[in-house]
Amino acid sequence: MKIRFLGATRNVTGSRFLLESNGQHILVDCGLYQERDFAERNWNPFPFPPARIDAVILTHAHLDHSGYLPKLVMEGFQGRIFCTPPTAEITGISLQDSGRIQEEDAEKKGLRHKREGRKGPHPEEALYTALDAERVTPLFETYHYEREFQVGPGITASLHEAGHILGAAMVRVRVREGRSNKTVIFSGDIGRWDKPILCDPTLFDSADAVVMETTYGNKSHGNQAEAGLKLAGIITETAARKGNIVIPTFAIERTQELLYGLGQFLREDRIPHLVTFLDSPMAISVTGIFKKYPEYFDEATKKIIRTGHSPFDFPLLNQTRTAAASKAINHIRGSAIIMAGSGMCNGGRIKHHLVSNIERPESTIVFVGYQARGTLGRQILERPGSVRILGQNYQVRAKVEQLDGLSAHADREELLRWLDGFQKGPDRIFLVHGEEESTADFGKLLKERKPGAEVITPAFLGEHEL
């Protein structure tokens, strides 16, 4: 059995791991690169012939794990895509949205480059279109958590609660080669304990090898309740300045957690009752999917539903689907809470809200999720004098805040908590999904705490025999 590391190696995004056994080629995750430094890999031919891939197992719907699927199908993949039912539905919406955004961005880029008389480093065309994304949906085959299914000859898999986003899974793959049996666990994105809405991450008894994320391998998030209190304070202070609270949000999970938290704050009168805009058609659709799968919620969220309240709705919440409604937001007088995608500010409606607010000292831009290196969100977070948005430079005068405590990723202590759950093994630990410094620091820590395990930071396109 062999694993080829085709992405998310010494960087955070582009999750793609190819498992080879018994003549089968199984791809775990098929994600887009979202860091600017690695964007060319999205345009390069896939490192392994897609037509020879027998199946894909998808951990969850975030684009850095699923966003390359339309391109894989365009290049010849025809196998099954295994995942949970919520992941299949959310991924379908996410890929359609990604295709539309890429079409729009390609058109705008083409016009801008024509006007400026230059060309960019990538083609002035979409990587794939919304129509290309539609061709992925018929390939989904879904299973609920804990149910083992056949992937190929001698290969079975099961999906387990990751505690990250709705339907997100850790993947346990069991492989029989002759008389040898091996178990490999792909962590996907490990969630957090005691988060609202979802259950805690799964702990496993044993494994021969683990491929695990290290996004926050050298950081601690701090108390989640304190992060909520900080958000309430930011909203109150910004409203007193008569500014807007602009929150770049990930349509999947982070939006729903914010709606959950804001609703709770309003019921308890802990923040001003401001008009709130969810300016993301995708986030609105994903929230509808959340409502379809209450069996995936934790007990506290189920209790809210039993009392007759919606965890994702409250008075003064406006959901804007149309472009005209989105544009109208910036004509409103007085303070408002504006949530819009994309979460890393690389595309979508958030760019227009940034243009309207980034030069206003009274407004606050609040980041509530990871900002990958090279993204516009990361640039703003690093507080430069100015940033380029939609082809123009803007001074960063708005207040900029980051709330790590609301992250859906496990921090260093929680990653260790997950790994300490193993009673036997793993013998080999592959560290992925982290910037080099984060992964190196976490790897050094593991070598001290797990002296019996081989800790490996694979290189891009590296191959390892198990």
What does this structure look like?
- This protein is an alpha/beta fold.
- The chain has 2 domains: 2-219 and 408-465, 4-Layer Sandwich (Metallo-beta-lactamase, Chain A); 224-406, Rossmann fold.
- The chain is globular and about 70 Å long.
- Strands 6-5-4-3-2-1-22 form a 7-stranded mixed sheet.
- The chain is built from 14 helices and 22 strands.
- The mean pLDDT is 93.
- The chain has helices at 40-43, 63-66, 69-74, 85-116, 130-134, 224-240, 254-267, 281-292, 299-306, 323-329, 350-357, 376-381, 412-420, 436-449; strands spanning 2-5, 17-21, 24-28, 55-57, 80-83, 140-142, 149-152, 155-161, 169-177, 180-186, 209-213, 245-248, 276-279, 317-319, 337-340, 364-367, 386-389, 392-395, 399-402, 428-432, 454-456, 463-465.
- The longest helix has 32 residues, at 85-116.
- α4 (85-116) runs antiparallel to α8.
